Amino acid sequence: MAISPEQIADATLRIIVSQGLDVVSIRTVAKAINVAPRTVQYHMGTRDELLAKAFRHSIDRQVRRVAALTNKQDLLPALASRLRELLPIGPDQRIDAAAWIIFGAASSTRPSLTDMYMDELRTFQARLTAFYEQVARAGRLADNLDATQAARLTTALVNGLAVDYLNAPAPQKIDADLESGLRLIIRS
Predict the structure, then answer these.
(1) How many CA atoms, within 13 angstroms, populate the side-chain half-sphere of residue 144?
(2) pTM of the model as a whole
(3) Helix H segments across 20-146?
(4) Nearest partner of 44 among 119, 101, 117, 36, judged by Cα
């Protein structure tokens, strides 16, 4: 049976989300997908490389989901629909949101994860800052905020909602909470 690096990354993410980062090893991932450890090592390298590739895979999935949205809505609904894809609203989104939280927490104590996580965080905030610069030019950014502050607040909003709703039985209010938070940043 041929196995792809994406399948290995998916299995790694499932293990991280269900059992924790410390459980991940070449062997545990190999066992989860019924392949020899050498197969996982061949495609993914060391444990640190396996973790990095799994994280990159999760980020790439999120970017693809957001890029697939082509709505021509007003600023706030357009941003909300994109940010919604980063929240635990479905099975893939739940895994990716949990991975983001887990890798973020782990990056504070594991130097092998710090640069990778911080690079992704900076990329996310740079994209938000560019968006909020457009919002400011349109005269719709909340008073006393600049684009950089708006990006940090949005990051905090998304991270907080992800944590709050990650294990909620049904994320019914997540959309309303997201839009309410964004309305504090973007004026109508």
Answers:
(1) 1
(2) 0.91
(3) 26-32, 37-44, 47-67, 75-84, 91-107, 111-137
(4) 36
